[in-house]
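Re: beginner question about structure tokens

> Can someone show what the tokenized structure looks like for a real chain? I only ever see the sequence side.

Sure, here's an example I had lying around. Input first:
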Amino acid sequence: MELTATITIFPTKISSRSRNNQIITPFKRSKFYKTHFIKSSNVCKKPIFITKCSTNPLISDDKDNVIQDQDSSFSPNSSHDIENQKIPNSNIEKPVSNSSFSRGLVLDLGTEGAWDNGYIGSPVIKRFLSDEEERWYMWYYGRSGENSGSGCIGLAVSSNGVHWERGKGVASSGSDAGLVLKSSNDWWAFDTNGVMPGAVVIMSSSKIRASNAVYWMYYTGFSNEKIESLNDSLEFSLENPENGGKMGGFGKICRSLPGLAMSQDGRHWARIEGEHHSGALFDLGAEGEWDSMFISSPQVVFHSSGDLRMYYHSFDMEKGHFGIGMARSRDGMRWVKLGKIMGGGRSGSFDEYGVMNPCVVKNKTDGGYVMVYEGVSVDGTRSIGLAQSLDGLKEWRRVEDEPILKQGEENGCWDDGGVGSPCLVHMEGEKDEWRLYYKGIGQNGHSGIGMAVSEGNDVKNFRRWTGFHL
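And the corresponding structure tokens:
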């Protein structure tokens, strides 16, 4: 049966160089997608709806917590059945060795000829629970090692969040894993030189089939414009995405902006044009502002009805360090910047040269907010730090002077070059623990995705995963 949905956007601005008023991806549109832009001068509180459904969708978080508008008539249990599709049985990953040199590693580079056999990182994790099963999705950045092509976004799936299945090529069917979003083919677009996931927010409704839930992906789009002055001001070299040069970087960084794409199955994505002329959601800061160089790693949190919050990072040329800033939105598409909320740490600290790649999670225990972030030292070494805030706005404080996860200590282990791009998942249940997924880099430049687990519900203490304890 062919599934068709119409997505209506109010009142999204259509660029004068729009694509005949249609959303286009750089590869053939699946039968599952038939999308249209519809112009309107009316302002609607709810920015998106699926045909024959209310315009008050639910927004679910990483598990089964569905945040519902007070006037919504939807069931709060609709996210339990998201994606009732079989896990693909092809390209099954071999179990990762639990030796000390691969401790914590849950996803390695792809096999020869795969789209992601050159580099992987930036994991975005979602966990779904139902009475019948547990399902995990991981969207991540990857690129091939056979050429210097631009980076793409892929999807891996799992039944336990540890053993992941991936695809070698494009995820063509509704149950595939693999490559799901490439860079744009439009010369004027902001994302012609690569795309990298930042966050996935899920809109769902009990009035439609679970497989018709709408995924909103906020991502970083890289252009072809190089920032020559940035590497000149650093004591180490960068590339896109931002890896320390001593860990395999090529000394190349391009301007980037935040973008938005939507999907019904997490695999087939349609770009949504933002208000910027390039299709991005918003522009760089003006000359002299802290985010005038680039905008990267947009991570979006739903706070309450009409209050979505985006955390992102840039490089503050005046201060000489990476910083994390914030923007707010009522509809998820039009954003207002609030400014920088975190900068470089104290002298000699693991994050003296700044903070980047934030992941913010609302702590369901105390109602506050937890941020894990990538800290950059003066020599470019990356570690993962922790900050907390009561309201998730500007009052952020570092919890520890030391990182909660450092690079691997044993020489020759897979992540002995640095760790970063954290993604935090709260494992509610009997153990009430946290999982920390992250990018790891070896001294030889080899990359992978790892996992650490907390000591109980203590979000300040993590150990690399070594196996299930029966």
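Each token stands for a local structural state, so reading them left to right follows the chain. The first strand starts at residue 7 and ends at 9.
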